[in-house]
Write a structure and sequence with these properties.
The chain is α+β, with helices and mostly antiparallel strands. Among the domains are: 99-190 and 254-288, no CATH class; 340-520, no CATH class; 574-646. Helix content is 65%, strand content 7%. It has helices spanning 2-23, 29-55, 61-88, 97-123, 127-130, 140-157, 159-168, 177-183, 195-206, 250-271, 273-278, 280-295, 297-310, 341-344, 350-371, 404-418, 422-432, 441-455, 464-476, 483-502, 508-519, 526-559, 573-603, 617-646, and strands spanning 214-217, 223-224, 228-235, 240-246, 316-317, 330-334, 338-340, 373-375, 383-386, 391-393, 399-401. The strands form three sheets. Strands 1, 2, 3, 4 and 6 form a five-stranded antiparallel β-sheet that branches. The radius of gyration is 36 Å and the shape is extended.
């Protein structure tokens, strides 16, 4: 019995190794062993069927050939099993037993949450829109009613959906004003987490008791939001700090809800035209990426350090983080004494209000246009009036980043607005967004001209309608705004509302023009041209030095008839590997077809010496060629299935 078991195991291992080698790819252990076990089970019946009729009448090598053929047929069956399994269930698509059990638990929790969110949407009258009905956005009353239902559903959905609504409230380029106004009413209203839970988080991030790092730690939070709460503390050195602690257990909840948001977005895009037009899928992906960054306080600490490093000398301060004490769920930063702008602006006079508004606007424009790292959510709660005078920006969980090309395009956009040049504004705008395949540039230029005549003429103080009209103009021409540029628009729209509430009548466009005049060079100005020419000359100088010698060599080669041009095809190793793979597949296909055709011709032949009363030598060779043809064809098919899955 033991010998039989050992033999069976050895045969399974041999078939598994042979199947993998002949197909030239690695497969999962389970499916490989199943295919090998199938081959072992078939060896006996196939051998009996082939060798049985001739075993008593033939001797020598004839039965051995049929036994070899039986093993080949069994191996072929194992390879067919692997090929079908790869086509139906690609390798890696099914998790292991432990992973499957964990996935079942996660799916059960997600399903319960999904059903709860679905019931919330249906209860607020949003169910028909998930089933494919396009929203009625014709009448203002219909839009307002739908926007109120959406806001109430998001509010009831919890932290992730509240955050989603807050982000959508800043996308006036995508949503009608009624939706923007309703979604702005969403606020984080949560009870503080108990001190015992907060202490466990702080201890886990610090790697030791709270008392080892902090001389004192206020147990009552200064403020509590859906993701984190803020406590006051004092370090052993005597420095007073603010400690931002992530609420316990919030990360798994957010991850589960983000998965639901992605699924709802895919469903809406698949079933409704409005979701495809707005690009709900891209919005959901951008929101998920931003929220995951917000859950990692190390990102916020890096954002604070980056803004502080690029804003030295600015009139607006930023708190300094303590990276050594901070972690994924804990952020320790400098404490700035003051009051939020929302509560402290009442004690300011008109001149002080205008001075604060100017300082905040100039700091934000400097971050956007010059530094490339900027605060993306400058609402009144994130602006502090310092006790000793001055202003500070708080909460760097949402930060935008711009590369040099986007900053240059924004500078050109601002300069064109200052010169009242609609064509220049249109060109700069098309540099900021992906250029669509079809766009009426003349109509866009006329729309921009009407926009400028409506909002940017002397005597008119821009208000929130200016940004709303700009967003509508962008949306009307189907310009897809990248997330980086959308963050700029969001920050400017937010700061416009903040400064209008702080200093009514404050002319944002006038101040932006003055900032550009002081801090930016005028496009085409003499100084800018001189600088650009000098930079280009420095870059071209090595080329100019080599140019005469290169020209002399080319002319000499042409005169002597030795001038030639070398073109190297497939210089990239990846291209060579790709073409080699294609050639191998083509060669295997040709060989498989040739072997198959020869097998059919030989099997149809009745001539030649007989190895059995019913089988000739040519037919036996045909059977073997048929097996070879099937093996080669299976190898090509499995490679195709694997490549398609990896794409």
């Amino acid at each position: 019995m033991i010998a039989f078991a050992v033999t069976a195991v050895m045969m399974v291992a041999a078939f598994a190794l042979a199947a993998r080698r002949l197909l030239g790819l690695r497969f999962g252990t389970v499916r490989t062993l199943l295919g090998a076990a199938l081959a072992v089970l078939l060896v006996g019946p196939v051998s009996q069927a082939l060798v049985g009729p001739v075993a008593g009448n033939q001797a020598g090598i004839t039965p051995l050939w049929f036994i070899i053929l039986a093993f080949a047929c069994s191996l072929l069956a194992s390879m067919v099993f692997l090929a079908i399994a790869e086509a139906l269930v690609p390798t890696g698509s099914i998790p292991g037993p432990l992973e499957a059990l964990a996935a079942i638990r996660r799916r059960a929790g997600r399903s319960r949450r999904y059903l709860r969110i679905t019931r919330i949407l249906i209860r607020h009258g949003l169910g028909p829109y998930l089933r494919g009905r396009d929203p009625d956005l014709g009448a203002p009353s219909s839009r307002l009613r739908l926007a109120r239902s959406l806001r109430e559903a998001l509010d009831e959905g919890g932290v992730t959906f509240v955050k989603l609504g807050q982000i959508l409230s800043t996308r006036a380029d995508l949503l009608p004003p009624e939706f923007v106004g309703e979604l702005r009413l969403l606020q984080d209203r949560v009870e503080p987490a108990p001190w015992e839970e907060i202490e466990r988080v702080v201890t886990g991030e610090l790697g030791g008791p709270v008392e080892e790092v902090f001389a004192s730690f206020e147990r009552q939070p200064l403020a509590a939001a859906s993701i984190a709460q803020v406590h006051l503390a004092r370090l052993r050195s005597g420095e007073e700090v603010v400690v931002k602690v992530q609420r316990p257990g919030i990360a798994p909840v957010v991850e589960r809800d983000l998965d639901i948001v992605a699924r709802l977005a895919r469903t809406a895009e698949r079933r409704t035209r409005w979701a495809r037009g707005v690009g709900v899928g891209d919005l959901a992906r951008g929101f998920a990426e931003a929220l995951r960054e917000e859950l990692d306080f190390r990102v916020e600490a890096a954002n604070m350090a980056a803004v502080a490093a690029t804003s030295k000398g600015s009139a607006v301060r930023s708190p300094v983080p303590h990276p050594r004490l901070s972690g994924r769920r804990l952020l320790v930063m400098e404490r700035l004494n003051g009051v939020p702008l929302a509560t402290g602006q009442a004690g300011l006079g008109p001149a002080e209000r205008e001075e604060v508004a100017r300082a905040v606007l100039h700091a934000l424009l400097e971050q956007i246009l010059l530094n490339g790292v900027f605060h993306a959510d400058p609402h009144p709660g994130n602006i502090m009036l310092l006790s000793g005078g001055g202003v500070a920006l708080l909460d760097y969980g949402s930060v935008g980043r711009l590369d040099g090309a986007l900053r240059a395009a924004l500078q050109r956009l601002l300069a064109a607005l200052d010169l009242a040049d609609p064509a220049g504004v249109g060109d700069a705008l098309l540099e900021l967004v992906p250029r669509p395949d079809e766009i009426d540039e003349r109509e866009l230029e006329r729309e921009i001209g009407r926009f400028m005549a409506r909002h940017l003429v002397p005597g008119i103080v821009p208000d929130s309608r200016m940004f709303a009209d700009l967003f509508r103009l962008v949306f009307a021409h189907r310009l897809s705004v990248p997330p980086e540029v959308a963050a700029v628009f969001r920050a400017l729209g937010t700061i416009e509302g903040t400064l209008t509430g702080l200093a009514p009548g404050f002319d944002i466009v006038k101040e932006a023009r003055e900032f550009a005049g002081r801090r930016l060079s005028a496009p085409g100005g003499r100084e800018e041209i001189r600088t650009a020419v000098a930079q280009e000359a420095v870059r071209l100088l090595p080329l100019l030095r080599r140019l005469p010698r290169s020209v002399d060599r080319i002319v000499g080669a042409a005169e002597s008839g030795r001038f030639s041009v070398n073109v190297r095809l497939f210089a990239d190793a990846r291209d060579r590997r790709h073409m080699t793979g294609l050639l191998h597949q083509a060669l295997l296909t040709v060989l498989a077809a040739t072997a198959g055709i020869m097998a059919v011709l030989l099997l149809d032949s009745e001539r030649g010496p007989r190895v059995t009363p019913t089988v000739t030598l040519y037919q036996l060779i045909g059977y073997n060629l048929l097996v070879v043809s099937a093996i080669l064809a299976l190898r090509v098919l499995v490679a195709i299935f694997r490549e398609r899955r990896e794409e």
